[in-house]
Hints:
Two copies of one chain form a homodimer.
Chain A: H1 2-7, H2 23-36, H3 44-55, E1 62-69, E2 79-80, H4 84-93, H5 98-107, H6 114-121, E3 129-132, E4 138-139, E5 146-151, H7 152-157, H8 159-183, E6 188-191, H9 199-213, E7 217-218, H10 221-227, H11 237-241, E8 253-254, E9 264-265, H12 266-281, H13 290-302, H14 316-333, E10 340-343, H15 348-366, E11 375-378, H16 384-392, E12 399-402, H17 404-407, E13 417-424, E14 427-428, E15 445-451, E16 457-464, E17 476-480, E18 488-490, E19 494-497, E20 500-504, E21 507-508, H18 515-528, H19 531-534, E22 543-547, H20 548-563, H21 567-570
Parallel strand pairs in A: 6-7, 6-12, 10-11, 11-12, 16-22
Antiparallel strand pairs in A: 1-5, 1-13, 2-4, 3-5, 3-20, 8-9, 13-14, 15-16, 15-19, 17-18, 17-22, 20-21
Helix pairs in contact in A: 2-4, 4-8, 5-6, 8-9, 8-16, 9-18, 12-14, 13-14, 14-15
Amino acid sequence: MSQRSRHQSTWNQGLDNMAAPSGNTRGVMERSIRDRAPPLLTDLYQFTMAYAYWRAGRHQEPAVFELFFRDNPFGGGFSLFAGLHDCLLFLRSFHFTDEDVEFLRSVLPPATDPDFFKFLRGLDCSGVTLRSVPEGTVVFARVPLMEVAGPLAVVQLLETSLLCLVNYASLVCSNAARFRLAAGPSRRLLEMGLRRAQGPDGGLTASRYTHIGGFDLTSNVQAGFLFGIPVAGTMAHSYVTSFTSLEEVWPQTLVALNGDPDPVDFISLTKGWLSRVCELLRAEPGKIREGELAGFLSYAITYPQNFLPVIDSYSVGCSGLLNFCAVALALCELGYRPVGVRLDSGDLCRQSVDVRRVFRLCREHFSTSAFDSLIIVGTNNISEQSMDELNKMENEIDVVGVGTHLVTCTKQPSLGCVYKLVEVRGRPRMKISEDPKKSTVPGRKSVYRLVDAEGHPFLDLVCLAVESPPVAGVSLSCYPLGSDDSPASVTPAQVACLRQEVFIKGQVTHPLCSAAETRAKVQSSLQTVHPRHKRLHEPDSYTVALSKKLHHLVTETQKGSSNSSNFLLAN
Amino acid sequence: MSQRSRHQSTWNQGLDNMAAPSGNTRGVMERSIRDRAPPLLTDLYQFTMAYAYWRAGRHQEPAVFELFFRDNPFGGGFSLFAGLHDCLLFLRSFHFTDEDVEFLRSVLPPATDPDFFKFLRGLDCSGVTLRSVPEGTVVFARVPLMEVAGPLAVVQLLETSLLCLVNYASLVCSNAARFRLAAGPSRRLLEMGLRRAQGPDGGLTASRYTHIGGFDLTSNVQAGFLFGIPVAGTMAHSYVTSFTSLEEVWPQTLVALNGDPDPVDFISLTKGWLSRVCELLRAEPGKIREGELAGFLSYAITYPQNFLPVIDSYSVGCSGLLNFCAVALALCELGYRPVGVRLDSGDLCRQSVDVRRVFRLCREHFSTSAFDSLIIVGTNNISEQSMDELNKMENEIDVVGVGTHLVTCTKQPSLGCVYKLVEVRGRPRMKISEDPKKSTVPGRKSVYRLVDAEGHPFLDLVCLAVESPPVAGVSLSCYPLGSDDSPASVTPAQVACLRQEVFIKGQVTHPLCSAAETRAKVQSSLQTVHPRHKRLHEPDSYTVALSKKLHHLVTETQKGSSNSSNFLLAN
């Protein structure tokens, strides 16, 4: 029974009793990451480069890569960082099987030294250290989110997998957070995009990270199973259209909740209510669809405590709503509480207002208090924009279901994280592009989040790792990125170190967070961000700045590089 | 060695020797579909409906669903149908484990009859029959692509999984086919979108179906392993920037191919060539990046037969191209054939023309015939539009790599296939929506493709299954969809039945096609389609029509439904 109540799906379920994945789920997830992201699921050039490093004896050189994105997604002012959990499981289980190595042998040139394949066979992440922003943190463009340090060949091999695991997770989590901001805090949000995602795993990843980003429920049963996300759903139109007549309803009786053991003829009872509803609403009984009523009756008899039909298979006003009210009133008479209705087409706002008015009429006329708490679910190709509009218009929608636009991130279907080399053998590395935005910032770094007196973060400061951290209350000079290269002076009220070591020499050193924990982190992180950065349209851009020393290193590296070497002439 | 040559990756590899997945790969794929698409990876409402059908004793009623999409993707005139292979594996292995059933028990209401879970535990697809368009066929909006017939509860449970497996596969395959049309037949296309896909499986699915849609190569090693797709890739910018000086190059020698056993000092040899190249091109040696040359040298020594560096880490004209030519000329001197270069930023067309001019200059000046066959790879955020433009402008790009816009289908990131009930217990079912486009076409059907005298398909005819097929040379009357409901008369020169039975009563009855076979099918199917339907912009729309009898059924069902029943008044 406790097992049941832990997982049981309901549209009204609070999140406080959301289930965490069960113990053995963790093992499933670790196995699953090896199936989902085997070490061959990467770009070929990682292997060609790894062999070139190995051949040159450079494969063990200590190297540092950074993962970041260059623009906040969806034209917004922020992103959320997600995917770390999967990255940690991936790093922990990273190794090549004999079969993997045999395939690589068939792909690399025949002259490849056989000892390289022995090297690959013995490879793992025991030399790798990962410093990362905690999963679920609000982050900004150009801040290095992850720092991956370790032997050059190994950290190079990790690139594509880490990008693949972070990019979509962060993107869809950010998208969900924007839908949540558009919807307001109280409306309940249901993710239902599995059928529109990039295949099965795209759908599962979407369910997980949209929940983390602020969605309450998912239609995806496997996501409930693996991640403990509350699942919801009742019926499709096909269920309704599969019925044509009341003769198909079976059983036809229902036992009242009041203890009376005699089954009641539920069809007759409902027909009586339907007459009264038609009378009250001056509806034409001739327009009511018998098949729809049969479907509702059959469903209500099966689920007397979970009655929430889709009411627009034919016509909401002429049939679906009347049939719902009749069945719901019959349920109420027997002591059950109907749950509500779903609208899946047309103008959801207007219809929801009409439906609520009818619920209130019934409640007054028939004195059924259960009609006070009926919920209205709206699902009809909702985009961020339509969610925003919906929130501004008069409506009575309690739960919104979102599919396509949520999981495919129509507005921007990829995040564009990159993974750049910043240090080899303790020496900073920089890619100097003719497009300044594509140049990288060299050196191993620390990142601090500076917070103002009101508790709002106002600047992320990127320093050299060797620098001492900024001090609360003490003014400092820095160089905001994207400005005209002039310094700014700021005084933080508080300073937080943005990243932490989460994986040291092959070991996960930070507790793996459950989806529920990361979900809470998202909301608390978003809470602190000033509304001007969270605005969905034309937000104020958040400042990311380099410390004086790091700025100096960038300038010197560029200068040194433009003087270039005279190696050609000198030799 | 045959194993090697089967898989060996090369930018120039012909497709005729493309590997089919090895025998044991098939088993891997079948296991993999159970991991990727377990039967719980579906929407909860499939289970709530299944229980309601079971409770009402309707679960065994014979039912028929159809899968189709309502609009051709990307504003185009056609789509490709893909995902069938995965659907067949999914159907074949469909069953619930004890663990699945226990989880469902915890999710469904406590009052759910325990016998229902026994029923689920014993469920499989032995009662299911699937008729489908062959994978890789050109298809059009509103044509029923798959017909899934079987016990009502079972075929209902399959909905989300089938949609999930077909939607993205067909979408990304169609996207790839459009890129192929934009690129022209001879340019080679490389898919490299793994890091931007919806997680690992999104990336793998993308690699597979873009190859089927017309791409030649993938960067994704796992896709090579599982599906035999030729893989390609050499180096990232990080490889180049990881070098700073020639001192890092090791080994520094290379043995000539001519049989001379004495290793040649490859650095000195290349330096000599670099001076001559600079002289020829009147380039400033002081601007040449030593680190870049070191990277190229080290790579060339490792891969003397596979030298294809990325040449824009610093400046193509001032450094990368000069370094490439020097190393390539040194390789030629030792009897090796350099492969080419990759450009990853800026104006690819203009740069490719410049690069080719330099190749020709070197070829003439230094008499190196190998420079005639150097290839230029372009990779820089290519979209369908930029591919189209590229194809129209002067350029020398031989291979184009496409990532983000290909795998995320930026122009339209979901296809929108739906799965609609059309028959129960032999009686047609129809969803009559206030939006006529959302109404369904009732009844079990056959679909014929009518072909004109030139061999071009010109009309897909949707008939009732019981009708006799159209006859070549005989005129017939039909009702084109989306027209003003007036009949049209057509005479086909040939008639083809569009769908075939591929899964009967639990058995796959049609050979599972390899990726290579389906890829060939795509091209042959596209070949037959008239260019006016294949135009990327504003194509002529292809006609899909209902037979007279089916049109009559639609009209009668609508009429019957608007008269509705008098069940309420009668009782």
